Amino acid sequence: MAEGQLIIAPPLQPYKLPMIAVLLLLVLGGLALAAMTLLGGGDDEKPASSESPTAAATVATQAAQPTATPAGLFVGRAAVIANSDPVPNNTNCLAVRSAASREGGEILGRLCTGEKVTVKAGPTQEGGFTWWQIQSAGGLLGWAAEKSADGSLPFIVPQ
After folding, report:
1. What is the dihedral sign for C-alpha 138, 72, 143, 102?
2. pLDDT at residue 48 above 60?
């Protein structure tokens, strides 16, 4: 027999402060995510609509254009010219025309690869091409083909 005191330390005591810190970080991260979502940080999400899916489909059908809009380009969208590298006398850059036609539209100017434009109107189908009315940063306004005749080279790409 001996006199004494038995001391048993709680087994998880050394992990108490790190666990509190991890939980605090998780709570703060959740609050930050919630705040971003509520304040408009989720721009990629579609806005909620009070219309039924059938009503939305009816409205979309009524607003449909005779020419399908290619993915990525639409009126008001910023775009950039591609695959239109200059050669001497600038004859290989994308022709900007007065009308959406190779035969009926006179060339107003040319835009080369990398030039920024804004889509103003379109699309229109003519002569095997999809045409968009574009305006360059320099003010050149006219119609240009979106892609080459065989569709393999895009000339106007979304920015």
Report:
1. positive
2. no
Helices (H), the chain: 16-38, 53-62
Q: Is residue 15 part of a domain?
A: no
User: Model's pTM, two decimal places?
Assistant: 0.53
Contacts of 13 (CB under 8 A, 6+ apart): none
Cα separation of the two ends of the chain: 86
**The CATH number of the domain where 77 resides is what?**
2.30.30.40
Structure tokens that stand for 82 in this block: 């591609």
Domain count, the chain: 1
- pLDDT digits 0-9 by tens, 100-153: 888 888 889 899 888 999 999 988 988 888 899 999 988 999 999 988 888 888
- Asked if the structure places residue 103 within a domain, the reply is yes
Is 13 within the bounds of a domain? no
Residue 140 in domain: yes
Whole-number pLDDT of residue 91: 67
Residue 116: count other Cβ atoms within 10 Å of its Cβ: 14
Number of helices (H) and strands (E) in the chain: give both, helices first: 2, 7
